[in-house]
Amino acid sequence: MNRQAVNPYLPSWEYIPDGEPHVFNGRVYVYGSHDRFNAPIFCVNDYVCWSAPVEDLSEWRYEGVIYRKKQDPKNPLGYHLLFAPDVCQGPDGRYYLYYAFDFLGIMSVAVCDTPAGEYKFLGHIHYADGTLWGRRRGDQLPFDPGVLVDDDGRVWLYSGFYNAVPAILTGGHKLRCDGGTVLELEKDMVTIKTEPRVIFPKKGPGAFQGHEFFEASSISSYTPLVITMNCAMLPAKALTEISLTAALWLVRVISSWTATCPKSTQLTIWAIHMAGCSS
Question: What are phi and psi of 104, to 5 degrees?
Answer without folding.
Answer: -65, -25
